[in-house]
Amino acid sequence: MDFTAKLRDKFVEYGYGLSDVAAEKFLGYYRFLVGYNGKVNLTAITDEDGVIAKHFLDSLAATPYLKEGVKLADIGSGAGFPAVVLKIYRPDADVTMFESNGKKTAFLEALTEELGLNGIRAANMRAEDAGRKERYREAFDVVTARAVTETRVLLEYAMPLLKMGGRLVAYKAHCADEVAAAENAAKILGAELTETKEYALEGNFRTLLIYTKTAETPEKYPRRYARIASEPL
User: Fold this and answer.
1) Does 121 appear as a known binding residue?
2) Which residues of the sequence carry a binding annotation for S-adenosyl-L-methionine (predicted)?
3) I need a labelling partner for 27 at 20 to 30 A (CA). Which of 50, 72, 219, 228 fits?
């Protein structure tokens, strides 16, 4: 079975529709990722089944939280999961990818050009630096982050980027301890855990933590990286 057939079968199995245009772009994404991975270490998962399930399908878990024309920021975009996957599936979304690694930023720029995607861009900067810039602060409806850092640190990265009422969608594996540890950070930063969504993916259990911005984030946040790392809220 070729890649596109596998992709269609898995999308149907998990309840996702798939247009011919999107299927073609996912195939192009897979080929470009595997080819580029030889010169830049982007992912340890390169087999067809693994990429379809563990990267593409997992990334799509955030789609119910994306309104029409959503302004989305992705923190630590790396190989483009979930940002590029979400853009392919939801072309109406306006996406900004924050990636501090220059080589990975170059990959993201090359990938989006290769796939002919508009309304998506990569910014070579740390999220906490973006949160202090006027053009990015309180500019987004949704912030996504997949396997980036612990929740209390992630909240300090994300909340300054969100508009009031905006949501952080954090992709996690096991997170019960993290949620408890993040209660103080959430209170300080104006965030409320409004939903915990658990789902199974090829026998593995995953979780989305949905935090909603319910109060203004104090201007002094986010702090500098060294301070966040050494003294998390």
Assistant:
1) no
2) 76, 81, 127-128, 146
3) 72
